[in-house]
Amino acid sequence: MNLHLSIPDFLLFAATILLIFTTLLLLRKVNYKNYMLIGTLAIYFSLITATIVLILFTRYNIKLIDSATILVLMAIVYSLYNVFHYFSLQQLIAKKSRFTLQHGFHLGVIIFLAILIFYFYEPIHFIKSKGYSFVFETQHLMSVQKKNLILRLVRIIHPIFYLMLGGYLLFAFYNSPRYLSVQKSTRSFIFFFYFQKVFLFFWVSIGFIGYKIDKNLFSSISMIGFSLTALLMSSYILLSPNLLLQITKLNHNSKKPAGDIFKFQDLFAQLNLIMDKNKFYLDANYSLTNLSSDTDITTNIIREVIAVSGYKNFSAYINSYRIAHAEQLISNGYLDTYSIESLCKDSGFQSEVTFYRVFKKVNQCTPKEFTYNLKNHKQKG
User: Fold this and answer.
1) How far, CA to CA in Å, does 281 sit from each of 81, 319, 360?
2) pLDDT tens for residues 331-362?
3) What is the 8-class DSSP label of residue 34?
4) Does the global pTM surpass 0.85?
5) Are the C-beta atoms of residues 58 and 67 closer than 8 Å to each other?
6) Exposure of 379 by Cβ count < 10 A (0-12 exposed, 13-18 middle, 19+ buried)?
7) What is the Cα–Cα distance from 300 to 306, expressed in whole angstroms?
8) Cα–Cα distance between 379 and 373 in angstroms, integer?
9) Residue 142 in contact with residue 151, Cβ under 8 Å?
């Protein structure tokens, strides 16, 4: 075993140590409330650690496992860390608190791919590299020898697919009302977490692309870039003691809303936009929980936004839309054809009594009086 430490060696060993510390830190923070979020992050970092360890096995020609096994294990670990990066990003953004069928599907696909890789694996001939270029040489030889198509595709297509899925999550998050309800430091971490995965894939691609140009040079560049990116991500977490607390609070649906009055105003404007566009208020059974689910904003934050915007509660907020809708229907001559009872139902009210009470509170008159006053106003006009 060659113990001479080059710059890539040193960086990979340093990245391994920091990744182990990061994983252990995350595991210490796991509890029954945040196990999905913190657990998926811990698994993701442990999988990056495993990837680097397997790379070091090839670098130092460690004989614990043969080269074929290393190749297959690398492909499986690589696939798993693509999936768990997506899971982690999903948890950070969508704050799901339990394992779902969707998670099972993604993991099931990995198991299926692993079975295919093991079953159809064909030995690769004429492997010469024992260092960092081993990974990139095997990709080149498999292409030339037309072997292990599934293994080759997993190395390239799989990460691209999950980067696209993660990119879509990030885009949807940025354009959702929930974006403004998340603390700035947490938002920064979410974006940083996604783009570090983009850079990890970029550095691996550099090794694949540059193999034919100068395999030693580009293999070293690839490993240096990969390890520096992993070091940066680990350092980000280890040097930000409050970050995990903020992320955990986010997952706990903390009762303390994030942001100031201007942030609430922006959130309220987005809530109004969503309500106008989707007309949720016409559903008589639509609740605060439904709005929270549709906007991905916690119920506590919605309550705070509504209160700051001058409404007593959610019922007062949604009923203001229903009354405005009823007024519009009356202005269009609705009561010339239909009854008050129909107006009540078509405006999203369950109870006619509630409709009358809220309508009179807003307009200081009944729907019939409102119709009469409207007609008089038109005649005088």
Assistant:
1) 42, 7, 19
2) 888 888 889 899 999 999 999 999 999 999 88
3) T
4) no
5) yes
6) exposed
7) 10
8) 10
9) yes
